[in-house]
């Protein structure tokens, strides 16, 4: 039940965050704004996520992880409803509210799952929960266009908001049980918001993983953001064909999240596995940029699936390892601090990629730079391995 509930919450929050990009072509035309402004909206969402993830630790301890998740669902619903006003201030505030709701959900679910999951199953369970992110994207892509046809873009946004409210009601049934560890006397302060970040940098193994996640998330966003444009402009693929490659990459990411979680639980230590995934996704980026131009569509599809399976599939292993390394009772707090750096990569990656493309005039250069960087990150993870035990870290290193 904890896994099902956290998966459902993750999927709906993800759906809420990805609904505006689906609505953008219709909404922008009616409002009179350029559709490219959706990039700014998404950036604001992740800036809100960065900020709210830092404060999630104290909130989880004070109110409980499920109650915080309920707050997050309501914030996402409010952000979607506010954005339907269709004026700039409402759209900006709506994006920030969605981001404030998106940020604490993963730390809250990590807090719940770290308490309820056997250590030998953490990789699979956390990876399965993280499939809620692409699942929410699939729900947005499959359901929202139909809702737009039935009720207009404002009606579609409000319908997704109602889904979030409904999940808030459903989760109330397990709230008392899973929030039994909350401390109502816990103080909430703005100064305490930096505590999770200080904790991350105090524990070297967690710090290393969090810094690496900045580059992992940047690579992931650049793949999903620029792959279709790259294939159409520099490979000459039709839009539908390029879209198929992206769809296969996304689907492979879901499979990858489950596969790598199982591998981390049974075969390869998580830190080693993450370093191998970094080397793998970096190699795929270089192959895509340098060698794949003369390949057949079938081989490009295989490369896209391999790339997506690694660049989108790493998250569950990363979050499970952060929770495993965290001191007892601190999984939510440390996850919030680590995700600040993860979301920073989401915000910084696409603009950096665009800057490289602007300087060189080709998307291939962006994949070369990012691919080389992520391979260096993989080597750093591999060669800075620390001797570890199966118990959480209980000292600063």
Automatic annotation (TrEMBL):
Residues that span the membrane, as ranges:
38-60, 72-100, 153-174, 209-231, 237-260, 272-291, 297-317, 338-359, 365-386
Instruction: Extract the SUPFAM superfamilies matched here.
Output: MFS general substrate transporter
Keyword annotations for this protein, in alphabetical order, are: Membrane, Transmembrane, Transmembrane helix
Residue ranges annotated as coiled coil are none
Q: Where is the Major facilitator superfamily (MFS) profile domain?
A: 1-389
What protein name is recorded for this chain?
Answer: MFS transporter
What is the scientific name of the source organism? Tepidiphilus baoligensis
